[in-house]
C-alpha cells in the first residue's frame, strides 16, 4: 500500500525545508502542550499524595485521642467540636460503632447524622481489614455516613479517611471517618494550571510567530538552492560549449594560416586584408573560449596545477621579450629592473605563471596610451614580489573594488577601444591563489596603476 504518490514524494524531496518547517510548526506546540499536561498531572498527583498522607495522620491522631474514651460520648463530642473548629480544612468527622453488620453514628459534626445506621461499603472494608481506607469524594454532605446513600455532588473535592479505633488492649471498638477539604490546595493548583496554560498559550504564539517569520528564510534557502542549480547548469553549458567550439575554431585558424601564407595560392590586396581581420577575430574568439574553459575548470575544482620550483626571473624576461614588440608598436617603452643578485626559484605552475604574467603585463600595455610600463622583481622575506607599474589611464576607487569580478570591465571613453571579456583578471587572481600567492592593485585615475604579485619562494618550503 502506497502512502504517498510519486508527485508527493517528489515534492517532499524537492521542498525539504518547507516540509521541515511544517513538521516543526506542528511538533513544537504539541511537545509543549504534552510537557505542560504531564507536569500539571504529576503536580496534582504529588499534591493528592501529600493531602492523603495528611488525612491519614489526622485520623490516626484522633483515634489515639479517643481510644480509651469511646464510651464517654460527650467527651468524644467535645474532642470533635474542638478539632473541627480549630481547622477549616476538617469538614466532617464521625465516630461509628458496629451495629450488627452495619455501623451506627454515635458522634458527628453534623447533629442530624447522630444515630444514623449505614451499611457503607468502605466502613465494612476498613473494619474487616483492620486498616485505614482513603478515597476522594465531591459529596456536599458534612457527615460521611451519607456517602453511600446520597448523590448530591458539589464542586468541592474532599479526601475521606476511615480508620478503626482500637483500645489499649488492641481490640477494635469503633471507626473514625474524617472528611478533609482540599479546597485551598485545589484553588492553588487551579491558579498554577491557569498560569501554566497562559504561559503555554504565549509560548505557542511565540513559536508560531517565529516559524512564520522564519518561513522567509526557508524561501531564501530555496531560492539559493535554485540559483545554485541554475549556476551549475550555466557552468556545465559553458564547459560543454567551450569544448565543442574549440575544435572548429582550431580548424578555422589552421585554414586561415594556410591562406595568409599563400599555401593555396597567392592572396593579395583587399582579400588578404580581410583574411587578416578574420584571423584576428578568430584569435580573440579562441582566447574567449580558453577563458571560459579556465573559469569552468576553476569553479568546478578541475584545473590541474603542477606546482614545482621554477625560475621567476627567466619567466619575466621571456614575457617582456614576447610583449615588447606590441609595446613598441603602440609607442610605449617596457623596462625590467632585474635584481642584481641571483634570484631564488619560486613554487608555481610554469604554464600558469606565464599566463598570469602575460595577462598582467599585457593589460598594462593595453591600458597605457602613452608613457611606459616598468617591471620590478625583489625578494620580500619568504615571498617573491613582482610589480608592474604603468603610466596608463588608471581607475577610480569604485572600479578598483570590482576589478577582480567575473565579466567586469571598466567602461569609459578611454577603454571603449580596448577588447576583452572581463574574465582575465578574475582568472589571474584565482591562478595566483591556487599557487599560494597574493595580488594587490593600487591605482590613481589618469595617473597610472601599480599591480603587486607575491609568490612563495621554493627555499621557504624546505
UniProtKB/TrEMBL annotation:
Catalysed reactions listed for this entry: ATP + protein L-histidine = ADP + protein N-phospho-L-histidine
TM region positions? 20-40, 197-218
This enzyme's EC code(s): 2.7.13.3
A matching Pfam family: HisKA
Q: Which InterPro entries match?
A: HATPase_C_sf (IPR036890), HATPase_dom (IPR003594), His_kinase_dom (IPR005467), HisK_dim/P_dom (IPR003661), HisK_dim/P_sf (IPR036097), Sig_transdc_His_kin-like_C (IPR004358)
Top-rank taxon: Bacteria
Q: Which UniProt keywords apply?
A: Kinase, Membrane, Phosphoprotein, Transferase, Transmembrane, Transmembrane helix, Two-component regulatory system
Q: Which GO terms describe its molecular function?
A: phosphorelay sensor kinase activity
Histidine kinase domain segment(s): 240-459
Q: What's this protein's name? A: histidine kinase
> What taxonomic classification does the UniProt entry list for its organism?
Bacteria, Candidatus Kerfeldiibacteriota
Amino acid at each position: 500500500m502506497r502512502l504517498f504518490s510519486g508527485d508527493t514524494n517528489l515534492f517532499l524531496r524537492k521542498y525539504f525545508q518547507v516540509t521541515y518547517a511544517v513538521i516543526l510548526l506542528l511538533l513544537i506546540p504539541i511537545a509543549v502542550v504534552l510537557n505542560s499536561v504531564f507536569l500539571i498531572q504529576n503536580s496534582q498527583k504529588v499534591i493528592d499524595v501529600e493531602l492523603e498522607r495528611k488525612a491519614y495522620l489526622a485520623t490516626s491522631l484522633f483515634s489515639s485521642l479517643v481510644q480509651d474514651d469511646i464510651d464517654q460520648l460527650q467527651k468524644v463530642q467535645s474532642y470533635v467540636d474542638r478539632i473541627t473548629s480549630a481547622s477549616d480544612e476538617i469538614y466532617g468527622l464521625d465516630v461509628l460503632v458496629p451495629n450488627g453488620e452495619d455501623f451506627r453514628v454515635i458522634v458527628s459534626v453534623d447533629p442530624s447524622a447522630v444515630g444514623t445506621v449505614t451499611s457503607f461499603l468502605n466502613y465494612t472494608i476498613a473494619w474487616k481489614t483492620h486498616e485505614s481506607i482513603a478515597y476522594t469524594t465531591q459529596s456536599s454532605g458534612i457527615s460521611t455516613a451519607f456517602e453511600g446513600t446520597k448523590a448530591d455532588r458539589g464542586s468541592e473535592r474532599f479526601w475521606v479517611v476511615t480508620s478503626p479505633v482500637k483500645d489499649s488492649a488492641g481490640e477494635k471498638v469503633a471507626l473514625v471517618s474524617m472528611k478533609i477539604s482540599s479546597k485551598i490546595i485545589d484553588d492553588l493548583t487551579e491558579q498554577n494550571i491557569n498560569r501554566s496554560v497562559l504561559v503555554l498559550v504565549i509560548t505557542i504564539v511565540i513559536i508560531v510567530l517565529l516559524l512564520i517569520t522564519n518561513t522567509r528564510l526557508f524561501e531564501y534557502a530555496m531560492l539559493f538552492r535554485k540559483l545554485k542549480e541554475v549556476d551549475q547548469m550555466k557552468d556545465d553549458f559553458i564547459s560543454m560549449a567551450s569544448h565543442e567550439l574549440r575544435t572548429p575554431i582550431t580548424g578555422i585558424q589552421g585554414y586561415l594560416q594556410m591562406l595568409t601564407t599563400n599555401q593555396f595560392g597567392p592572396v593579395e590586396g583587399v582579400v588578404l586584408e580581410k583574411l587578416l581581420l578574420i584571423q584576428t577575430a578568430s584569435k580573440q574568439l579562441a582566447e574567449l573560449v580558453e577563458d571560459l574553459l579556465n573559469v569552468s575548470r576553476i569553479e568546478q575544482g578541475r584545473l590541474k596545477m603542477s606546482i614545482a620550483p621554477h625560475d621567476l626571473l627567466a619567466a619575466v624576461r621571456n614575457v617582456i621579450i614576447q610583449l615588447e614588440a606590441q609595446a613598441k608598436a603602440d609607442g610605449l617603452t617596457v623596462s625590467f629592473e632585474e635584481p642584481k643578485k641571483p634570484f631564488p626559484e619560486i613554487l608555481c605552475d610554469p604554464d600558469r605563471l606565464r599566463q598570469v604574467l602575460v595577462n598582467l603585463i599585457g593589460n598594462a600595455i593595453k591600458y597605457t596610451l602613452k608613457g611606459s610600463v616598468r617591471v620590478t622583481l625583489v625578494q620580500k622575506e619568504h615571498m617573491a614580489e613582482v610589480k608592474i607599474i604603468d603610466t596608463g589611464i588608471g581607475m577610480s576607487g569604485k572600479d578598483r573594488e570590482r576589478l577582480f569580478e567575473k565579466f567586469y570591465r571598466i567602461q569609459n571613453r578611454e577603454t571603449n577601444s580596448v577588447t576583452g571579456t572581463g574574465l582575465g583578471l578574475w582568472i589571474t587572481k584565482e591562478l595566483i591563489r591556487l599557487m599560494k600567492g597574493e595580488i594587490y592593485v593600487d591605482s590613481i585615475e589618469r595617473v597610472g596603476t601599480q599591480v603587486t604579485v607575491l609568490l612563495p619562494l621554493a627555499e621557504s618550503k624546505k
